[in-house]
Amino acid sequence: MARSASILAAIYFALIAVAFVVFTAIYLVSSPFVVTTAVRMTQSSSSLPLAERVYVGSLTSQNVRSAKRSIELVEYYRQDEASGPESIGHLLDVRDSFVKVWTGWVASSITLVSALIIVWWRQAGTWLRMSLRIAAGLCISFTSAIGIVVLFAFDSLFTFLHEIIFPQGNWQFPPDSLLVQVFPTPFWVIMMSLLLLFVFVAGVLIAFGTLTRVSQSFFPAHDNAFYL
Question: What is the SS3 assignment for 152-219?
């Protein structure tokens, strides 16, 4: 019974660790620096001047990642006759989604820190390493599977994710709309690839870290450490 409870706790801890990694990756990949870099790499897919796209891309990133409302950004997308109001509404929805990401990151961070303190106190190093290896396996397998989908069916994946995150349906815009011209499809391919790469590398580092003597010195193993 105790062994089963420990296994379930290890799986739960691993899922929390994976959530933390994913939330962290989202915030890092959506930073203005990364966004503007991806904008520069996809200039050939847009008819807008590069300087305009870089500026608007940075402004959009800052706006959706914070609770502040940028009047300048609203005025920019409002001039789009094809989908101005819809673009602004979608950006507000994206900002709401980032609030959920931030909330999830804080919750997972608190849970991880609390669990690590308990593990250190109980000296359950064996249990922790097992849980982290599960998390590493999930990160590596998850990103590998999604990576294959990105290579062969990105449009279907893009549509599927948007239908889940934005069920209200205000995420489809004409090809000549400002939002699509600032962030064309190749931009999202790069962003998704970077997100998957970050999570994959994190998984590899976690797996490697559980095998080093450093982790064993901080969380020593004991014969009964598996049973919390």
Answer: HHHHHHHHHHHHHHCCCCCCCCCCCCHHHHHCCHHHHHHHHHHHHHHHHHHHHHHHHHCCCHHHHHHC
Cα Rg for the chain, rounded, in angstroms?
A: 21
C-alpha 192/C-alpha 194 separation (Å) is 5
Domain that holds residue 97: 2-218
**Is the residue at 226 inside a domain?**
no
Does residue 227 lie within any of the structural domains? Answer: no
Q: Is 123 left (phi over 0), alpha (psi -120 to 50) or beta?
A: left
pTM, two decimals, is: 0.87
In a domain, 170, yes or no: yes
Asked, for residue 72, whether it belongs to a domain, the answer is yes
| Tens of pLDDT, residues 168-221 | 878 888 888 999 999 999 999 999 999 999 999 999 998 887 776 555 555 555
* Residues 31, 56: Cα–Cα separation, whole Å: 13
* Closest alpha carbon to 207 in 18, 25, 19, 22: 18
DSSP state of 225: T
Pairwise CA distance, residues 132 & 146, whole Å: 21
Our count of domains for the chain comes to: 1
